[in-house]
Amino acid sequence: MAYLELNNIYKTYGQGDNTTEVLSNINLSIEEGEFVAIVGFTGSGKTTLVNLINGLLETTKGEIRFKGKRVEGTSHERGVIFQNYSLLPWLTVEQNVYMAVKEVFSKEPKPVLKQLVADYVDMVGLTPAINKRPKELSGGMRQRVAVARALAMKPEMIIMDEPLGALDALTRGNLQDEILNIWEKDKRTALLITNDVDEGIYMADRIIPLRPGPKATLGPEFKIDIERPRDKTELNDNLNFKKTRNAIIEYLMDIGNERKSEAKAPITLPELEPKNFVDRFELKF
Amino acid sequence: MKQTITLGKVTKFVGLGFLSTFKDLFTGKLEKEDLQNFLRKIVVPIASVFLFIGLWHMGAESLYNTEAEFKIQKALRDQGPEAAEAMRECIALGDLSCRPNTLPSPAQVWESYKSLLRDHQIISADKAEFADKTAVLNQKRLAEGKEPIVYTGRPSFVDQIFRSLKTVFAGFLLAFLIAVPLGIFIGLSPTLKSAFNWFIQIFKPVSPVVWYLLVFMIVKTLLIDSSEDSSFTISFISVGLCSMWATLVNTAMGVSSVDKDYINVAKVLKLGAFQKIFKVVLPSSLPLIFTGLKITLSVAWMVLIAIELLAQSPGLGLFVWEEFQNGANDSNAKIIVAMFVIGIIGFLLDRLMLTVQNMVSFNKTEAI
What pLDDT is attached to residue B50? Predict the structure, then answer.
């Protein structure tokens, strides 16, 4: 049995005539210690999928099993890094992380928890800013806090919903490396949702495209057979990388074109004769 | 990290940022580009104050002349030309018996202000003297288990201000204690919201006078055995009930509209209900709660005057009413003094709330 298993998941929003089926027939299994990326267009239902897995939403049909147990509601075993950081603005970096840690390890004494917080804040390199509030931090720093908060809870699986989506390219690259370093330390199972194919290839063992919604469903998976640790600059010359990248992008482009042609209902244009503007604006010398 | 606190920061924090320009003026730090700022923030307001006083003075003078002319014409009609001439002289001399009773001029108001202060000094001295005289006797009475003798003389204008502030704060506290918890419950539960909605919609627009009468009906019966004066109780409860609606509505709205991201965080961290309310919901709705409290305090101060007047509870409202009934030659000027004092205190209360809000809230709001 796989570590995380999604069986025939359907998710619809609304009722009666207003029903929209966002996700349709999703099947996915992730093994322990695996790093899986799901790539898709914006608005394709990625966040809905993530919220189903972390337990914030309930499936309409089908079931999600985590370690053989049915997922019902959120759990500390599955840590979440949200797209928009979701830090509490009235708490400092330390307090934000501490709040999470205290919920998970409620029996530990305070000094132990404080040390744990300090360790994880240090790990993401934010010790100098530990007493600052989110508003005083840059986007990249905020996302680091969110990473520290999710990891400090020591979850068995980590779910990332476009964690780097709002960051600039340079910060993004740095954080990708940091997340990978942390992941490689204790090889937690990880699920990354992203809209960046390169990011997926760089970070994951396996990439699964999400065909855009409504009725979004998962496409065929692409295995990434590139040795870790991966080097970003070398990656560009790696044949394997190029091949996989092209295959995925081609697949996604095809979906895009398919959808466009589906949407192409024949439009009858009015019969018009082009006007002769040349006569009207004749230049006179 | 050490933060330095400067005068500029403090004034800005309490919403009196414009004052820092004065400091720059006196410390000679004024740059050239600050000149425009200086003109806009200092010179223009001062000029507008003078303009206001000037217009007021002219208006008061014109009203005075109309009133005087009317008096002379009336004397002429009723008693003949001699009486009219006598009246004209009498008015010209400024005699109290025939002084036209109309809008007082700025100078008269200033005089009244000074006389009220003098009056306060006299009464304070009187009180101190009384306390000295009765000190020994009161100690003896207390030892014997009797009530001490208290000063029962007329309260001064300054005493009235403090009584009013006491009433308004008691009322505000009552509003705070009712509206904030109730607002939280209403905001958290859609069932309670629909249960209370009609109640809020109907009672919110009720006038202070009606609130006073309602409270009067109830408190009068409740305190039927008590020999104590219930006017203070009635007035502060009326002020509280009348002003609490803004806080109630804002709290309920703040609590029910917490950012979904924060709620998701609470869910993912699996916070308990209690933790969720105190760690996530309340901090995130603090800005709205404080907006409500600010409105409540200003409404409380505004309705206080009317309620004090009705309840015959000592304070500025009663002062205004008594001066109006009194009809002495400087009564009108005293009423205007009270008007300015009420306005200035209202402004200061607003700034006080803004300061408290800035201290407790993560969402720093600039003074409007």
Answer: 94
Per-residue exposure over B150-166, b if at least 16 CB sit within 10 Å of its own CB, e if not: eeeeebbbbbbbebbbe
Residues of the domain holding B278: 155-360
- Whether residues B196 and B320 share a domain: the answer is yes
CB distance A89–B362 less than 8 Å? yes
State the average pLDDT for chain A: 84
In this complex, do A86 and B265 lie within 8 Å of one another by their Cβ atoms?
yes
Q: How far apart are CA A58 and CA A55, in angstroms?
A: 7
* CB contact residues (below 8 A), chain B span 265-304, against chain A: 265, 267-271, 275, 279-280, 283-284, 286
Residue in B59, B73, B50, B54 with CA at minimum distance from that of residue B102: B59
Q: Are strands A189-194 and A35-40 parallel, antiparallel or unpaired?
A: parallel
pLDDT digits (tens, 9 = 90+) for B263-275: 888 988 888 888 8
Tens digits of per-residue pLDDT, A99-154?
Answer: 999 988 988 899 999 999 998 898 888 899 899 988 888 888 898 899 889 888 88
Tokens of B296: 């409540």
Statement to judge: residues B91 and B163 lie in one domain: no
What per-residue confidence (pLDDT) applies to B251? Answer: 94
In a domain, A28, yes or no: yes
Residues of B in contact with A82 (CB under 8 A): 261, 264-265
CATH code of B248's domain: 1.10.3720.10
The residue of B263, B268, B289 whose CB has the most chain A CBs within 10 angstroms, and thus the best one to mutate to test that interface, is B268
What is the pLDDT confidence band of residue A212, given thresholds at 50, 70 and 90?
A: confident
Look at residue B225 and tell me whether its pLDDT is greater than 90: no
Highest mean pLDDT out of A68-82, A201-215, B170-184: B170-184
Judge: B270–A75 Cβ closer than 8 Å, yes or no: yes
Q: Spell out the residues 6+ positions from residue B242 whose beta carbon is closer than 8 angstroms to its own.
A: B206, B208, B211, B299, B300, B303, B307
Say if B86 falls within a structural domain: yes
Asked if B280 lies within 8 A of A75 by C-beta distance, the reply is no
From CA A209, how far away is CA A227, in angstroms rounded? 22
Nearest CA-CA distance, residue B270 and chain A, Å: 7
Would you state the pLDDT for residue A224?
83
